[in-house]
Amino acid sequence: MTMFHFLNCAILTFGPHAVYYSATPLSEYDTLGTSIKAALVYLGTALVKLVCLATFLKVPESEGFDPYQEFLKALIGFIDVAGLYFALTQLTHRNISQNHKFQAVGLGWAFADSVLHRLAPLWVGARGLEFTWEYILQGLESNANLVFTVSLAAMGSLMWLRKNKPRTLIPVIYACAGILATMPSITSYLRRSLGWHIPKVVGFELFASLVMAFISWQLFSACQRPSL
Amino acid sequence: MGASAKGEMLESVYSVLALMFMLVACVQLCDAATVVDVYRLIQYDLAGVPFGSRLANLNHHALSSPFVAGADLSRTVVIVPVRDVNMTFIREYITQRQLLGGLLLLLPQQFNPESKTDTVEGDQINGEELMRGKLAELEQLLIHANIPKVFQLLVFGWTGMFGAVIVEAKRGIEMSFGPSSGGVVKVYCGEKFGVRSEFGRLWYPVYFAFEDNKIDAILADIERNDAIGQPATATTGGSIKAKVFYSKPEDLVNLLALKGWLPGSKADGDANQLPTIAIVASYDTFGAAPALSVGSDSTGSGVVALLEISRLFSRLYSNPKTRGRYNLLFGLTSGGPYNYNGTHKWLRSLDQRVRESIDYAICLNSIGNWDSELWIHVSKPPENAYIKQVFESISSVAEELGVTVGLKHKKINISNPRVAWEHEQFSRLRVTAVTLSELSVAPGLLESTGGLFDSRYFVNETAVLKSVKLVAESLAELGDHTVEANLQQDVLDGMFTFYDSTKAKLSVYQVASVTFDLLLLLALASYLITLYCFLVITTRGLDDLICFFRRPSRKVKTA
Lengths: 228, 559
Description:
The structure holds two protein chains of two kinds. By secondary structure, chain A is mainly alpha-helical. Chain A has helices at 2-23, 32-56, 67-90, 98-125, 134-160, 170-181, 183-192, 198-227.
């Protein structure tokens, strides 16, 4: 019975990644290699991030929101952006279109993130006798994270790979990417400083992910039009 | 060659992976929302016949009341605060041995021997008195009602008092009794006193816990569930599961006696020739929950008084000028609830000369909760010189303190193995002894031996102090540092066998039912399908989706 619950939570956490891969043209063009490369880059980035966090951050004594520490954390969070930049521009990809490249990179990135951060707690926690909503919420969070990562990868691909963008849209793209990159700090602020409960935070994340996905989609298609 | 090496490497990698998986799967999962200390109902054997709660494992759904419609009581733990327990329910489930998954009784925090709150508010006292009565009744039900009177008769050798009907049966004697013990009791006596009783056992675990915030919150949750009318079973509704991790019971009987000796001084010689006065208190308790049975009043008060008296006199005796003309012997004995078996053993082990030098012994028992009246129990006629002396010296001090001391004489029946007072063990060995107690009549077997309500909360310090003063000053009127103190270990004889694992941790889990997980699975499946359709439509167009659904059907046709 507890195994059943574990399976449910695992489906919620990792199912969307698989569905995304198989439903979109990613599967048709066989972009699995790109995703795996992105996942490996994610692992490297996570290692660097961990080292930075361990070096620069103090162990929080209280649950309060410390602006300085959070600022440092957000700065360290930008290592992610660097990693994405590396995955998008420096890696040699087989000839796939930019359109699919950012999706594959985002997908691999988000999947690696989910596996690294959520699989172990899920395995240990969701199989326990105790029932909590925590793991279901965590699965939903993973969904939101997938959307954020793909959106961020889309913004990155616009920033670094596309040359002929409409000039008016450039600040919007950068602002959008900035918001997406600082999302972990924003949720942390909501949770720590405003004292939101986890269901509320997850709801916010889901809502924000939908909004950001819509905005980045519009930006992406707007940038594509002149090139067509 | 290279291929085989590669295969081997792959194999080793697989085995390592399998090992890791097994290790991960073996991680013990016992993180619960709440872990509560629980104290188990006593389990013991009396002459080989099992009594008390025989089971200790608990892993059931919880209910707040046994009257929830549609609940399968044999698979649920009923959690009830003693404060509002329904006595008829308890009686029904204990004496008639209805099937129950388990019973968890919540005691008020004041009865917790470990709690430090001893401030009493005025309006609380009435409630506490009520509570005390209720607890006494409950304990009576849990321990005493389960020992059939017949059995007491057999074990303690009384006959004829209840008018037994003795019927010859094939394998032994069948005795049946009327409602004197709360129901018809049948005991089969086979050869060699092998008594089989079906009465005293509880075939479900019974635990005690103390009310606190955690458990109150759990109880509120359970009550809410019950009110919604979701009976707690494995297949419906969110419910709470209680699980006790526990080790197997084992025999555990040890009697420890502690002896202290203050030699008196005599102008011309040997302290051994001086007469001795013994002060004795018994510290063993017997209660519904052994881990909670501290016996603050029944035994604790006596022990405290003894220690205080020994402190006073050791100071007095440390100065040769103030050393008395008596040796003082202090004894802390065990086995009190079981006919003072430890006292008997201790006396037997004393040196014959020491035992003969004892002029008299004063036993302290239940002196923690009295106002103005104390009793001296004796088993020799009051005309005895020593008893007269003790009584006179104590009552003269009592007069000064403004309390009264009465004398009660109860003869010993040598053929009856029941020993109601500690001094009776002395009297049996021809040592004059008295018991100082607030009780006016002798308690029955396993009565007033440190029950649940016999806690620190109900002990009056001034009463203990007064008792100390009474004894100490009466001794001083007749009038060491301890040079000798030793510990002695014995084995309890007789019919009692006890079990350990009196304390456990109760983990309370909030569990979801299978139905919930099934619904969750359905919701997830529909979510993923919708997501799939949405992604296909937005990235490839509606036609692709339709094609995707058509393709397999075409394949079936071609096949």
